[in-house]
Amino acid sequence: MSAGRLRSICLLAALVCSAATAAGGGTRHSVAADTGLSTWEAEAEGVHLRLTQISPEQARAFMLGRGMDRQSVEEFAHACVFMTVVRNESDAPIEHDLTGWHYLAQDGTARPMLTKYDWLTRWQPRNFSAPLKLAFEWSQFPVSQTFSPGDWNQGMTTFALPAGSRFDVLYRWRQNGKLHEGKLQHVQCPASFD
Question: Can you tell me the distance from the alpha carbon of 140 to that of 90, in angstroms, rounded to the nearest whole number?
Answer without folding.
Answer: 24
